[in-house]
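Homework help board

Subject: predicted structure for assignment chain

Our instructor gave us this sequence and asked us to write out the predicted structure in token form, then describe one feature. I got the tokens but I'm not sure how to describe them. Can anyone check?
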Amino acid sequence: MPGPAPKHPSVRARRNNPKKDFRSLPSEGREGATPEWPLLPDVNASAMLEVARDRVASLQVELEGEDDGRAKGRLRRDLNKNELLVAQLQLQIEQATDAEKALWADLWSTPQAVIWEESIRIVRLRNMCGGRFVPSRAT
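My token output:
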């Protein structure tokens, strides 16, 4: 005997229904304001910047108190190098922060962001953004 006729797919009960918890996300992405950027600037670059700023300040004091022409020239060269280092580090920190914030805004405009907004687990997303743009070490 052949058995009963198969049920229509719309009526058939499936234990492994792939659409059971399916959720449609808006194809245009998440609307609304982007959450505030949660991370601080790179700690290593910020520390290097502070050290370079301190060095510039100490070189300026040394330069004011120096009478010897050769020593003044050496101090001016060191001061110029350290001022350049300060400018480079400031620019690197600024550009890395801008790039991280831009990526943050882009990610929060995707359809997946609708789910992130409902979830309290956005730490991975924050860490992903913060780890992508690391300023190169200035020498």
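Reply (TA_rk): Your tokens look well-formed. For the description, you could write something like this. The CA atoms of residues 54 and 75 lie 14 Å apart. That's the kind of observation they're looking for.
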